[in-house]
Amino acid sequence: MPPSTSTAATPAATGGTALALRGVSVSFGGVHALTGVDLAVAPGTVHGVIGPNGAGKTTLFNVACGFVVPDEGTIERRGEQLTRLRPHDLAGLGMARTLQGLGLFDRVTVLENVLVGADRHARTGFLTALLGLPRAAREERALRDRAMAVLERLDVASYAARYPASLPYPVRKRVALARALAAEPDLLLLDEPASGLGADDMTELGDLVQSLSRDEGVSVLLVEHHMDLVMRVCDEITVLDFGRRIASGTPAQVRDDPAVLAAYLGEQVG
Amino acid sequence: MAALRTRAAGWWSGSILGRHLLVALLGLVVVVAVSESVSDFRNLQLASMAYLGIAAGGLTVLTGLNGQISLGHGALMAIGAYTTALLLDDREASTPLPLVVLAAVVVTLVVGIAVGAAAARLHGPYLAGATLALAVAVPGIALYFKEQLGGEQGLRVVVPDIPTWALDLAYFVTGQDLTRSRYVAYLAWFTLIVTFVLLANLSRSRVGRRWRAVRDDEVAAELAGVRLGRSRVSAFVVSAAAAGAAGAMMAVTVRLAAPSGFTLTLSLTLLSAVVLGGLGSLAGALIGAALLTFLPQVVTDLGVDAGLSDIRAAELAPLVYGVVMVLVVLLAPAGIVGTVRGAVLRRRGRSAPPAATTTGAAADPTTSTSTSTSTDAGPDPGASPGTSTDPDSTATTTSKGSTT
After folding, report:
1. Using CA atoms, how far apart are residues B274 and B293, in angstroms rounded to an integer?
2. Taking Cα atoms as reference points, which of B185, B198, B200, B241 lies closest to residue B51?
3. pLDDT at residue B330 greater than cutoff 80
4. Given pLDDT bands bounded at 50, 70 and 90, which one contains residue B148?
5. Which residues in chain A are contacts of B217 at CB distance < 8 A?
6. Nearest CB neighbour to B225, from listed A91, A133, A144
7. Which residues 374-393 of B have a C-beta within 8 angstroms of A?
8. Beta carbons of B383 and A148 less than 8 Å apart
9. Which H or E run contains A35?
């Protein structure tokens, strides 16, 4: 499992972070989406990012994934600076991300969806695949077992042969999560994983996220609107407003922060 | 007995290559049986069905599995055909036929890398435009280099004599002398079977899975570690290589490589064959090729029987083809194979009992062969909703019953 090796590798001061953004600024044609944002995800913890709509949460995620190249600032992973990060590098770096819009592959089955997520564990080359060598078949079986195990863990194994479009939204949501987990990342980026879920599903999601971080040492970066979920599962929270970090700390600290109350929570916590 | 069945089913689901080879072998038997029982003229038609099938198979991988459109596959076939013609220019040409085909594939593959690299950056109509340019430009090259490529007249292709071992083998197996047309039909169909086995292998592997992922959602595929450009180029190159093999077989069949054989119509025809049969399905590509080859003939004969003049009857063929095309697109947008398989899957999904693990796995070959002609090279790549996907894992089969 990747988590243990990664966290043990560099116990140095900065080496300990699963992901660190330092002084990240992004602007889109004059609009400052992010201004000098710092954020550090400690290994094995759940780090929440909250903020009102348009605060820059998704941009922050996109920077962490290489979709958006920051104008300023650096991204570090396990103490090493990631220059020229591209989205396809994530899997190799032990990172996985879910998308707000799910982004499931609609014309293949649920199982195949998860298999794509597990692809980073495969080594079969093009020629081996072309010739259908036994090695390819063996690896394929191993991948399938792995994918089925993840589907079972998320209670959606019974949908393995179905096509995503025919499934209810909460199930699709789980499939998307299964696809991310199948890569066995040690850093998981969840973009609004609870949106569209009912109370029960949300509770289960919270339990899952906590068990991932506590029992398996997976670090989680979480963007979420549902305050109760964020407050329950996060070890640390960063609050953004208009592209700036206005607060960070434990849920309790953030909850009582006057700046946060003013900017965001005030209306809800009241 | 039950244990044996389970083991057989396990082997069937476990060995992808074994399964494809078995279907290929069955296909070969059918090819021999059909080819031996029809006339020389029909054998040449069979050969042209085969080369169209090879090209359509390559195109269905590109369009059906990877979502790229190509209007230039006729041009890629031309490259394979001209390579073949240049290597087989007279009776003394000593290059063995397999090497000639290999050379045609390699040359087309190299061109495919160049075109694919450009295509990987383009989408939808832009990609169609770029490949359209290819379709228009390549025959022009043959006209420009008159000396080397024969201009409008094209290059004659001299098919080497049938090797004695082939004559002996054919006589031994069938008890008939091997005619040249039959030899050409065997060559083309053998090439088709090899190509389809390789394409089916790819489609079933992680390579094919990544192609589909890129087709369905680029962003999600990229996040899963798929390199979009590389995946697109590889699909294009594979597809081009198949077109090269098809071109070589076309040259051998019609014994000529001339610009008039590789007009834009050929490219469009291939695309229509793929759509008719069902995008992403090799069996569909084959059905499409069969329709292309035999439908005009059948319609013309029917027209003559109905009392039309020869010319009138011949004019009927494109009309009927067009009507078939429109009907398929309107009534069965997943193509022939996609629609049939969707219906089979729905029915099986309703009736399959949850415990039927082994029967589920064993039921797959019957469905896949019943929907396709027996020369199909294996369970086909699924592209449209309702295509077969995972008969392999027993867990999948069990779950199908329990969820429905």
Report:
1. 13
2. B185
3. yes
4. confident
5. 103-106
6. A91
7. 382-386, 389-390, 392-393
8. no
9. strand A31-41
CA–CA min distance A31, chain B (Å): 24
Compute the nearest-CA separation of A67 from chain B (Å): 9
**Structural domain of B102:** 2-403
Q: Work out how many domains chain B is built from and give that number.
A: 1
Share above pLDDT 70 across residues of chain A, in percent, rounded to a whole number: 92
Give B13's pLDDT tier (boundaries 50, 70, 90). Answer: low
Which pTM does this prediction carry? Answer: 0.84
More confident residue, B249 or B154: B249
Instruction: Name all domains of chain A by residue range, CATH numbers in brackets.
Output: 2-94+185-269 (3.40.50.300), 109-184 (no CATH)
Q: Report the alpha-carbon distance of residue A156 to residue A167 in Å, rounded.
A: 11
Window from A80-94, A159-173, B9-23, B267-281 with minimum mean pLDDT = B9-23
Which residues make Cβ contacts (< 8 Å) with residue B243, sequence separation at least 6? B54, B55, B58, B59, B73, B76, B77, B79, B80, B108, B112
Tell me what pLDDT residue A3 has: 38
ipTM of the complex: 0.88
Instruction: Provide the shortest C-alpha distance from residue A125 to chain B (in Å).
Output: 8
Structure-block tokens of residue A197:
């879920």
